[in-house]
Amino acid sequence: MEINQHARDVAVIGAGMIPFGRRDEDSLMDMLAYASLKAMDDAGLGDKSVDAVYVGNMGAGILQHQTGIASSLVDRLSLLPAAAETVENGPASGASAVKNGLLAVASGYYDYVLVVGGEKMREVTGWRATDFVATMTHPQAEYIYGVTLPGMAGMFTRLYMEKYGVTREHLITVALKNQEMGALNPYAHVEMALSREGIFDSPHAVVNNPPVADPLHLYDACPVSDGAAALVLCPLETARKLNKPPVLIAGFGQATDTQTLQERDDPTDLKAVTLAAQQAFEMAKLKPGDIHVAELHDAFTILEIAESEHVGFFKKGEGGKAALAGKTRFGGQIPINVSGGLKARGHPVGATGVAQVVDIVFQLRHELPKNRQVKNAENGLTVNFGGFGNNVLAFVLRRVEK
Amino acid sequence: MREIAIVAYKCTKCGRIHYPFHDRCLVCKGREFETIKPQGNARLLTFTRIYNLPWGFDQRYLTIGVAEFENGVRAMGQINVDEDFLLTSGMAMKASWEPVRIQAGENVYGLVYSPES
Fold it and tell me: Do A155 and B77 touch (CB under 8 A)?
């Protein structure tokens, strides 16, 4: 997919997020405002405004009984009369908001755009939150049966195990890796490393790590989180004049697939992930092997393994083995989810796609502590996975030397 | 026993079977479909047992799977088995149309699979 030759290059000049977790003291609007201010301050905007605001949010209408989120946020931040829209695309709402910001600046219509993603999910019981997320399934063919997203992932995992030989050992490796990194990330929901004995091969594991949707267990799934993250975008040429190294949104891709897993010819084939990543790589004129750090949508451990194959880091069926061999660890061949990923950083659904870009921006600006900074990272990839793989967005980001 | 109320859609142009409904064929984009019913027994393609249930399900767990009928219709359904029953992919299932949840005090009917004995 060719981008219009007249389109402008777009850079990230501001990035910020608030710690994910259970934030009983903050409303959704508080969280969106805090993250926005951090990104605006990071961009050095001072008292300046932005031309437009895009807010990624999946469920305020259901969870907070509140709509018109973007209008409310521009008012709260005194960004009037900036244009403002809320973008809803399930768990990929965040990346869709980034996409809208990217296209708005690339087109030349706006110069400065604020992109925010946020969700407040812990306000309701787990019973309600699980139902809320399940509303993205097909109303008659899936939802009525009580299927949940962990349930969809459980069925997918069984198919993947049977076709490719993925084992619980592979899944556990991803869980341990991401929790280990999350323990180092002050923004993570679960800042806690896990022990293998605690969740896998000991009598304690039976209690600590029960099945949630077999063959997936509790620690194969991400937590339900509150949180927000934000970015400021502008044309690359403007960004070059600023102090911090600009991070170019070098590539973008998005693809959809059937709503129900059962209608895919091969339900283990995440075509939308493959297509989104291919588009992003083509636009960036890079290959999977050029990527130094990646944030993949590991709402469930199996997804990190499957996505690592579908974006082209590993051949089909090799992702689990690669994780087990340490290739996806910090310091490995391709470090994946150095932030802790959704698994440890958390998954406030509308925030995730923005937070992934924020984390890669931190990496590409070389701002992280040594125990999380991928040395000399220049190119990064994000994948935000909506529905059960029915709407996927990928970004390739590149550090630009001034 | 109630009749299974699912209707699937076979594209009259290319034969692709759809469930649920699409306005255009997923393969050839045709807009004309012959309605068909799931026929015969079904083969279990995949399944899971969910322990963290959504609002509306006040029970300890729920077993759910996707099965393919003899005429190619694929559909999700609840699976009626005890917790210790060993399900396997490929297992032959019989389908029935039974209450699968209660909404606003009314039974909602859907597919329920049981192992073919």
Answer: no
